């Protein structure tokens, strides 16, 4: 048994299972050791946590387990398997990397759900070298990394703006407007962020999601290029929020990510988007015929670019 800062304790109930209790002696979670390999100094743990309302307690629990296993057991690699509805913020803040998403892996009451696999080495844990959750302040808005915790926000956003966005985005079937699909999309986006290929951000005004913006197809080497795309709530247009979001992300891409070039494309008749890009210093590159499939049809687009 070992105690943690938040006055909780972990008690061993079998050779591979532990119970996590809070200061009142109430069980808040369970730890099951799936694999413990002394030769490779690695451990795979299945974590079940029941107090979704207490993220700080979850973080302290994970932190203490890692500290014990890395420092006392002298492990090098530690991996956690968790349910896809568990708040992943503590893993992000502690330096874990999302190593895999096992779709339709667990069956409960006949319903298949997915699980996440997070991993960290003792070096990463002690130095906190892995990326933390991204948040960028603009003049009028704030950009936040869209992790799976924002599933309900994104679902509400797309349902509310379904008619508004259908003329600017790919054709969506009914499954797109469900919690499970939105969570799957955000999980994949989060994995791409950790892998450095894209950044999917929410545009927030007073902690309310009003739009989204992303850098995709991020390439370094001699190109150092990315593509920017965005959308905003129908009722938030014309307030300068999107211009602020584009400027904020482009400045971050140039100054923090050290990219050299950002490219964007708009539909031929999307004058509002074109005006945003021009006001943010983008230059018209030309017309791409049948460039993207929008709402079921291949559409011509005007491409723009901006260099550092």
From TrEMBL:
Q: Where are the transmembrane segments?
A: none
Keywords per UniProt: Acyltransferase, Transferase
Source taxon at top rank: Bacteria
Under which name does UniProt file this protein?
Ribosomal-protein-alanine N-acetyltransferase
What family is it from?
A: Belongs to the acetyltransferase family. RimJ subfamily.
GO CC term (a single one): cytoplasm
Please list the residue ranges annotated as the N-acetyltransferase domain. Answer: 141-308
Name of one Pfam family that matches: Acetyltransf_3
The protein's organism comes out as Clostridium frigidicarnis
Which is one GO molecular function term here? protein-N-terminal-alanine acetyltransferase activity
């Amino acid at each position: 048994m070992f105690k943690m800062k938040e006055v909780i304790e972990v008690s061993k109930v079998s050779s591979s299972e532990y119970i996590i209790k809070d200061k009142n002696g109430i069980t808040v979670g369970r730890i099951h050791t799936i694999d413990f390999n002394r030769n490779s100094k690695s451990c795979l743990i299945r974590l079940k946590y029941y107090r979704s309302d207490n993220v700080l307690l979850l973080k302290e629990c994970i932190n203490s387990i890692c500290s014990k296993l890395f420092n006392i057991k002298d492990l090098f690699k530690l991996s956690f398997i968790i349910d896809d509805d568990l708040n992943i913020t503590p893993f992000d803040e502690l330096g874990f990397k999302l190593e895999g998403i096992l779709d339709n892996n667990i069956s409960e009451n006949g319903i298949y759900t997915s699980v996440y696999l997070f991993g960290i080495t003792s070096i990463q844990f002690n130095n906190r070298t892995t990326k933390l959750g991204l948040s960028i302040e603009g003049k009028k808005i704030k950009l936040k990394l869209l992790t799976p915790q924002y599933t309900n926000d994104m679902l509400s956003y797309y349902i509310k703006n379904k008619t508004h966005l259908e003329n600017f985005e790919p054709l969506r079937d009914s499954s797109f407007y469900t919690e499970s699909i939105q969570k799957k999309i955000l999980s994949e986006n989060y994995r791409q962020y950790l892998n450095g290929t894209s950044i999917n951000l929410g545009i927030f005004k007073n902690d309310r999601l009003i739009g989204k913006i992303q850098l995709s197809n991020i390439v370094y080497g001699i190109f150092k290029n990315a593509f920017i795309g965005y959308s905003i709530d129908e009722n938030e247009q014309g307030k300068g929020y999107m211009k602020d979001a584009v400027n904020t992300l482009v400045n971050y891409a140039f100054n923090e990510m050290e990219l050299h070039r950002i490219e964007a494309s708009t539909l031929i008749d999307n004058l509002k988007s074109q005006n945003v890009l021009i006001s943010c210093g983008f230059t018209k590159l030309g017309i791409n015929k049948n460039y993207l499939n929008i709402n079921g049809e291949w559409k011509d687009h005007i491409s723009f670019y901006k260099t550092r």
